[in-house]
Hints:
With 605 residues, the chain is of the alpha/beta class. It is 34% helix and 24% strand. It has 18 helices and 27 strands. Strand 9 (177-181) and strand 10 (184-188) form a beta hairpin. Helix 7 (257-265) packs antiparallel against helix 14 and helix 9 (298-315) runs antiparallel to helix 16 (471-487). The N and C termini lie close together (10 Å). The structure holds 5-amino-5-deoxy-1-O-phosphono-D-mannitol. The site of 5-amino-5-deoxy-1-O-phosphono-D-mannitol (M6R) has 16 residues, from helix 9 and helix 16.
Amino acid sequence: MCGIIGYSGNLEAEQVLISGLEQLEYRGYDSAGIARMTRDAVEITKTTGNVSALKRKLEEKATLTSHCGIGHTRWATHGGVTEENAHPHRFGKITLIHNGIIENYKKIREDYGKGTRFCSQTDTEIAAMLMDTFYDGNPEEAIWKTTAKLEGSYAFCVLFEDIPNVVYCIRKVSPLVAAYAKEGAFVASDVTALIAYTQDYFVVPEDTILVLTDEKAELHNQKGNVVKPEMLHVKWDFASAQKNGYPHYMLKEIYEQPEALQRTIAPRMKENIPDFEDDQIPDSIFESIQQVKIVACGTAMHAGLIGKVLIEKRVRIPVGVEIASEFRYADPIIDQKTLVIVISQSGETIDTLASLRLAKELGAVTIGIVNVKGSTIARESDYVFYTHAGPEIAVASTKAYTVQIAALCLLTMRLALIKKTLGRGEITRDFALLKESIECVKHALLLEPEIQKMTACLTEASDLFFIGRGIDYALSCEGSIKLKEISYIHSEAYAAGELKHGTISLITEGVPVIAIATQESVFSKMVSNIREVKARGAKVILITKESMQVEESIFDYHFTIPEIADDYTPIPAAVILQLIAYHTSVRRGLNVDQPRNLAKSVTVE
Ligand code: M6R
């Protein structure tokens, strides 16, 4: 979860580390710190709070010239949010930062640190102590000896006090990418921190040590041999990872959806039929598939709920949508005839990754729908379907969600073609509808001023309900998570027909209910359910298609999306829900992009 950066080169280290941490802050923002190396010392500055707090603390200090250092922005796991627990941690000659969890830290403390007084409650300080124990002038040997003892996940960047201007790094599971540019050598948790210097980078392979000097970023294996990195190129640039005039990343990312959808859909179109030749996903893998499991977390899992409706309807094979943290421990029934689709924006979510590994072990065919190029899930999936949303910085996922739905639409169409459950004509029509959804998104964005006004009625709510049926219920789940994660208002998503079985007792005068009613086949049923909540005093915010006739008595606010086939309504309707969550959070004066307790990339269990 934490963000880490390391640098050795010709620029001022402080400047590189701080701007890197600003780019990585969405990974965790409980506390932040840097260590700068000079010829004869390692100077640490750290604080609770965000990177701005760290900057303020640095301003109070005397100027220090340094061209090498490491920086960390923390999402607390072991130990509370205190300055002592913030990284970097120093023990003896070792100063290090860490992203991950050392599961056996207590045993290591007993075995190697008995009687030692530690400054923090962290597992990281124990790792620093262990490395210092093993260090006798040979840094790589100390690292190998240390990691041989560690259980869990880690990405470490280490400074050895007596080896000036060199950063040593190693990782297991937790991500690290590196690059060399004219300004020097860089390492970071993800490429957003490097993009100001270069678009060419590599993923640090596990079981190698990365050595950064001002001349190179070099990989060494355990025998000490140099390993050639596999270079990757990221298409987006520094500007794409900035706010570009928007007050928040989230709003910018909401507005980027038409282009993101276009980039995800257009390259897969051949003769108006989705084609995955360029993705190197062969049709043969679909032929013997008898069931599909979609495994993911949070918003990505909600995209999976939409995928289930689409695939079952068009391909007529059973689809299960599984929460990754459950799936990995649930002894799932899957075999070679199962297609497991894992969905992850970051490609690093630990539970999704573990589920992918399990699915592969059990012999399933796996496809990763992933946004971040070269991420672990992308690399480990049998096949990868990249969404091209560009960098998503806000913790609340928006554009990643709609492109994940688009990816699932495309996979459904291809699967239906191979399974012959739809003809080419029907698929061509489906494809045209998917493209139309982009225009509908543009229309939904025009509703922002009205949505912004409406949210005045939500800011004081303590509970809120989203209701829908079928695909609208799947979308309700996403609307609810979006609202609660950034507005801190308690909300629940309910299948509208299920309300009467308990939840309707919570609907009292003035409780807001966001009713999504875009499905023609169940529209009259939805209207009845809306009447039921209205009769109990609910304040109803209704979302329908333009053509749907509704009596004014059943809603307080009404937002419409343009005419589009029922299965494609979630893409534009999602935009309305995102804007509702966004403006509610803004009105409540909250930190929209960095909501409390959350981090963008969940790399711990
Ligand atoms: O990177 P991933 O797509 O695997 O992340 C999964 C969830 O952690 C993520 O979607 C989370 O639920 C978002 N904060 C929701 O907006």
